[in-house]
Amino acid sequence: MSAYEAHFRVWRGDQDGGGLKDFHVEVNDGEVVLDIVHRLQATQAPDLAVRWNCKAGKCGSCSAEVNGRPRLLCMTRMSVFERNETITITPLRAFPVVRDLVTDVSFNYTKAREVPSFVPRRGSVRANTGCGRRTWGGRRSSASASSASCARTPAMWCGTSRRTRRRSPGRGS
């Protein structure tokens, strides 16, 4: 496969309103939608507002609706779309729009602060249940529970081929 030109419709505007704007942009093999949005910023719309952070599908910052469905822009591969398909990117409907694809997600942070942190019972044994899940007395920690609520762990990380990290000598037990 080689590079091709795709048709994008990207929502532009703010809390007072806006609309979809058409773009034609080059797409290369292996790219995700976030790569295309960055190319749009670099070549055609330098003022396009988009939020992203990890580009690994963990933080959820790049959430938007792609063709009407909520998606992580960093995890949505361009190969899932037909080459002649128009790809529409809009901000998430569940949150108020700040500008373009950026939404106000402060509600999430407010609610997260209201949830009490998990504190293990005194004397409970800390166990590693695999695949990054830490438990104390059979209960998941707040850190692993909160990260699990934000993103799914790819199945390939949970397989038997997963290497366990060993602690270097002298770094505690």
TrEMBL record:
Q: Which parts of the sequence belong to the 2Fe-2S ferredoxin-type domain?
A: 6-93
Q: GO molecular function terms here?
A: 2 iron, 2 sulfur cluster binding; electron transfer activity
**GO biological process entries:** aerobic respiration; respiratory electron transport chain
Q: GO cellular component annotations, sorted alphabetically?
A: plasma membrane
Sequence intervals crossing the membrane? none
Q: From which source organism is this entry?
A: Streptomyces violaceusniger
Q: Which PROSITE patterns match?
A: 2FE2S_FER_1, 2FE2S_FER_2
Could you say which protein family the record assigns here?
Answer: Belongs to the succinate dehydrogenase/fumarate reductase iron-sulfur protein family.
**Pfam families, per the entry:** Fer2_3
User: What is the designated name of this protein?
Assistant: 2Fe-2S ferredoxin-type domain-containing protein
Cofactor annotation = [2Fe-2S] cluster; [3Fe-4S] cluster
Q: Which Gene3D superfamilies match?
A: 3.10.20.30
